[in-house]
Here is the input.
Amino acid sequence: MPPVRSAQDSQGPTHSDNTDKALSRQWPVVSVRWVDAEARGGPGWEDPEDMVEFALKPLAEVHTVGLLIHECEQFIALTDSRGPDQIGSVQKIPKAWITTMAFMVPGVEECEDDIPPSIPIDGVRAG
Here is the structure.
């Protein structure tokens, strides 16, 4: 068994080139509609009518809006917040569960010269 390194010996996380590339680019805002998996029941016996009623119920459709960190053949990965040195939680959604995905704000590479890469919020008030 390899020796356990103490926290003092840690040199910090090392990241792959793919991680550095993903962190260096602007993440587009996407709107994703997808169906979620559901399960019901426990280790004991269940009422058959309740279980069949649950089995026949359609899956719930979920609507998520977030920053698209990664997309591959299997899944997409989104976050809701990004700061200079931190990001919010990451949610992975299998592509087979996605019904629609739309880009809400174009990414930097998609912007024309006269379209700003971000939406100005000067003079905007909440509430």
